[in-house]
């Protein structure tokens, strides 16, 4: 205890620096949690949060009764899981390949180019995607046409839509993800590679026995973080690209909540779905953290 | 590195300074606003002045610019109200814009802190009535509203006033606008001439024209379609490239409550006429008359096909020419000729244009208000000043501020209570005036503005005003209105007011199912008989329940 006090005396300026962050978290993350109450209410704006009548679990029951709810959950998880996997594999591979480049300027140019799309909004990108993927005039279908493939209406077909979402998301984000892995690569001791070369390991073997194990902690961290997002399949992207014919494969929890909550003013219901989402995400992130700790001995705290 | 740090700190300091200033201004303004009413009320009591005071809440507007030294607390418009009709206006608070206004209003209602009068939406009107927070203004309105005001607000036969009436009590003044907004068919007339086709009178004509436009490709674009359709064709907001008018031509309507012939109401989405319309659309799709990618294109994107001469048929509202202008007038030359026609009908009976009620907001008076008559006086005055053709200098203050000159400051936004005309006779007046070049028959400020714009195109001084002629000219869109109006070729939604309980819960489900099925039928992904299954499902998923509630409401409000 005395040791603690002494430490605090010595380091109090550092602790003070934490304060603004703590206050922000308190104000913007903890206090709004009171709003969760709305999930159990028939929220009436002029009665307010504390005056609206409680209706128990009716909002949740309504959600379960919704005819397409199974489909919506499936779409959400399907698209999100594929995005997580692709969002890990692609940036890692690119990072490793980039790392092999010897010319520094090529590396930098490539890096800059691939991470630019990260800064474009889906509103803008959806316009570009619609043009690129158009069956009548899109460049992709024209290229496919050279190989005798019939034009495909990617954004209007239920079998293609989820994959288009995953691929376009990976295209937009992989450059940004690559930065993290490139940083991890610089942490690997070069003498390990030299030793491996002396032992006669080729590039492939070096990758598998030195590079990948060296990156493992970061990979596990990124995976753990992304598991929490498993129910976030990407509202912006899908909302800007979907249409009634592909509702079947494209409607996700967030787009559903948008239509229900914002357009129909069902605030209580929208909150209930949001809460459910948070609970599932919380369980998943806890599981993945425990797994990461057990399997890779990785700890954040 | 050093310079960037310097820059960063400068920006930070600037930001802080700016926010600080902004804050202090705001709080001072708020304080002043709080103080004002008290002093004013005291003054009134002391010298027995006839000036009465009403408080309200106002949204600011990015387009509102104050003259030097003026603000929401003190400005020429408020002064004019005080001087002309003896009503002093104060604001309990000012919101930065309309969205913030709605947010703040919710809080104000929640805090039970209503000003003397405020603008609310239909749901809030109902809630406030039920919560007993607003005044029954039947008598006040009766006593203080001028005959002109009463006439102005019942031009539609009293429908809008009825939406504000609960159990025979008038609870608010509708913030009305003209509900008689029709849709029309716009056709490339240069193509009609080129291909020697007759003007479209029936749906069969329309199909023939669409097919000719597609196969003969008069625009020479190489990729032509028959008709322009965009991704929200059934949405109420789609004023151009929609399919609502097409449905109307088949006597089908989009989400409208209509009489079922037995004294009750039924929803239009599940009527058999819709199936006919969908069947026709499916046939068109099969023939390639509809852009197969319409589901992902919004109105602007779809319009590109119109601009580049690929489509020559568009359904849309009266303002559609403003959209068409981008392709029609290029480099100071008119390169596309368009004509506008009434929506053709599939059979002998005329097409009924689907319309709403023209009201979704109301001015309500708080139960605690001391001077409800002041609010009605404001209303009277607004109707007078906004509807004169040749405004006097005094009246110009209400629109332009103290120097009575239009300079883009939008002082009219300062009028705290504004209602729009429920009906206009643009269709009778404008085409005649423009044809005979006679401005003497014009009656309203709106007509004057439109006439002047159209004349600029006709006398050749501004070719970009092309669109106004297609709207207001002798063969323009509104020239069809008198006939529609006379023959009552419109169908008005019979349900108004706040959504019923099941509607609030289930409407989204029904709309989603509907769009899914309609789109799939149009795109020939499923057979048109799928519509019958949809009708069954619609009923089961809450449609029957909603119909029941709507009918209960109808019985109570008929």
From TrEMBL, chain B:
Stretches for region Disordered: 26-50
Keywords (A to Z) from UniProt: Lipoprotein, Signal
Biased composition (Basic and acidic residues): 29-48
Transmembrane segments: none
Signal sequence range: 1-22
Family annotation (PANTHER family): ARABINOSE-BINDING PROTEIN-RELATED, DIACETYLCHITOBIOSE BINDING PROTEIN DASA
Name the UniProt record assigns to this protein: Lipoprotein LipO
Native source organism of the sequence: Paenibacillus azoreducens
């Amino acid at each position: 205890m005395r040791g603690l006090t002494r430490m605090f005396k010595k380091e109090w300026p550092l602790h003070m620096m934490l304060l603004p962050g703590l206050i922000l978290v308190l104000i913007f993350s903890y206090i709004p949690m009171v709003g969760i109450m709305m999930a159990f209410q028939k929220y009436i704006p002029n009665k307010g949060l504390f005056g609206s009548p409680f209706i128990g679990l009716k909002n949740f029951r309504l959600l379960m009764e919704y005819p397409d709810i199974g489909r919506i959950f499936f779409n959400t998880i399907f698209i999100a899981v594929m995005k997580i996997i692709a969002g890990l594999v692609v940036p890692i591979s690119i990072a490793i390949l980039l790392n092999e480049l010897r010319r520094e300027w090529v590396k930098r140019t490539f890096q800059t180019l691939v991470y630019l799309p990260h800064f474009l909004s889906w509103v803008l990108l959806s316009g570009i995607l619609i043009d690129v993927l158009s069956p009548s005039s899109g460049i992709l279908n024209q290229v496919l046409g050279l190989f005798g493939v019939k034009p495909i209406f990617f954004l209007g077909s239920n079998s293609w839509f989820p994959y288009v979402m995953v691929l376009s998301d990976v295209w937009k984000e992989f450059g940004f993800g690559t930065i993290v892995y490139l940083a991890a690569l610089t942490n690997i001791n070069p003498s390990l590679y030299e030793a491996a070369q002396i032992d006669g390991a080729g590039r492939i073997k070096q990758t598998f026995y030195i590079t990948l194990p060296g990156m493992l902690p970061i990979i596990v961290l990124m995976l753990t973080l992304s598991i929490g997002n498993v129910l976030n399949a990407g509202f912006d992207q899908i909302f800007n690209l979907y249409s009634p014919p592909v509702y079947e494969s494209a409607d996700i929890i967030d787009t559903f909540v948008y239509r229900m909550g914002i357009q129909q003013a069902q605030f209580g219901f929208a909150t209930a779905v949001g809460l459910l989402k948070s609970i599932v995400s919380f369980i998943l992130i806890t599981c993945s953290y425990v797994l990461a700790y057990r399997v890779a001995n990785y700890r954040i705290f | 590195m050093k310079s960037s740090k310097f820059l960063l700190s400068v920006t930070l300091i600037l930001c802080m300074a700016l926010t600080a200033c902004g804050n202090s201004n705001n709080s001072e303004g708020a304080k002043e606003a709080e103080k004002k009413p008290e002093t004013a009320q005291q003054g009134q009591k002391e010298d027995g002045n006839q000036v009465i005071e009403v408080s309200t809440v106002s949204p600011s507007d990015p387009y509102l610019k104050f003259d030097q030294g003026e603000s929401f607390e003190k400005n020429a418009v408020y002064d004019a109200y005080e001087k002309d009709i003896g009503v002093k206006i104060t604001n309990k608070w000012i919101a930065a814009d309309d969205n913030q206004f709605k947010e703040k209003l919710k809080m104000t209602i929640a805090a039970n802190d209503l000003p003397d009068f405020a603008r609310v939406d239909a749901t809030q009107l109902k809630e406030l009535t039920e919560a007993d927070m607003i005044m029954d203004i039947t008598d006040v309105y009766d006593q203080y509203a001028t005959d002109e005001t009463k006439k102005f607000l019942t031009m539609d036969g009293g429908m809008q006033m009825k939406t504000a009436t609960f159990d025979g009590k008038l609870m608010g003044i509708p913030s009305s606008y003209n509900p008689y907004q029709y849709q029309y068919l716009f056709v490339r007339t240069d193509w009609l001439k080129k291909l020697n086709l007759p003007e479209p009178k029936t749906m069969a004509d329309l199909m023939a024209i669409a097919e000719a436009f597609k196969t003969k490709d008069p625009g020479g674009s190489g990729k032509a379609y028959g008709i322009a359709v965009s991704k929200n064709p059934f949405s109420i907001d789609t004023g151009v490239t929609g399919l609502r008018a097409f449905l109307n031509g088949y006597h089908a309507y989009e989400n409208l409550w209509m009489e079922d012939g037995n004294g009750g109401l039924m929803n239009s989405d599940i009527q058999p006429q819709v199936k006919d319309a969908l069947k026709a659309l499916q046939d068109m799709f099969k023939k390639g008359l509809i852009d197969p990618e319409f589901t992902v294109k919004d109105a602007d994107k779809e319009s590109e096909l119109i601009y580049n001469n690929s489509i020559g048929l568009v359904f849309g509202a009266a303002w559609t020419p403003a959209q068409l202008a981008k392709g029609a007038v290029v480099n100071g030359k008119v390169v596309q000729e368009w004509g506008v026609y009434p929506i053709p009908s599939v059979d002998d009976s005329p097409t009924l244009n689907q319309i709403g009620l023209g009201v979704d907001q109301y001015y309500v008076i708080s139960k605690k208000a001391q001077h409800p008559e002041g609010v009605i006086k404001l209303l009277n005055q607004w109707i007078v000043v906004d509807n004169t053709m040749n405004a006097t200098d005094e009246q110009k203050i209400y629109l332009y501020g103290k120097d009575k000159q239009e300079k883009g400051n939008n002082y009219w936004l300062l009028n705290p209570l504004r209602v729009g005309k429920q009906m206009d006779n643009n269709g009778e007046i404008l085409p005649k005036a423009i044809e005979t070049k006679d401005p003497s028959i014009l009656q309203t400020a709106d007509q004057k503005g439109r006439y002047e714009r159209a004349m600029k195109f006709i006398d050749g001084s501004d070719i970009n005003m092309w669109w106004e002629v297609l709207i207001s000219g002798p063969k323009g869109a509104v020239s069809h209105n008198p006939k529609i109006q006379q023959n009552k070729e419109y169908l008005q939604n019979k349900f108004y007011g706040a959504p019923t309980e099941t509607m609030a819960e289930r409407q989204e489900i029904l709309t989603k199912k509907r769009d899914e099925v309609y789109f799939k039928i149009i795109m020939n992904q499923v057979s048109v008989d799928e519509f019958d299954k949809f009708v069954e499902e619609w009923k089961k998923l809450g449609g029957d329940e909603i119909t029941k509630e709507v009918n209960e409401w109808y019985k109570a409000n008929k």
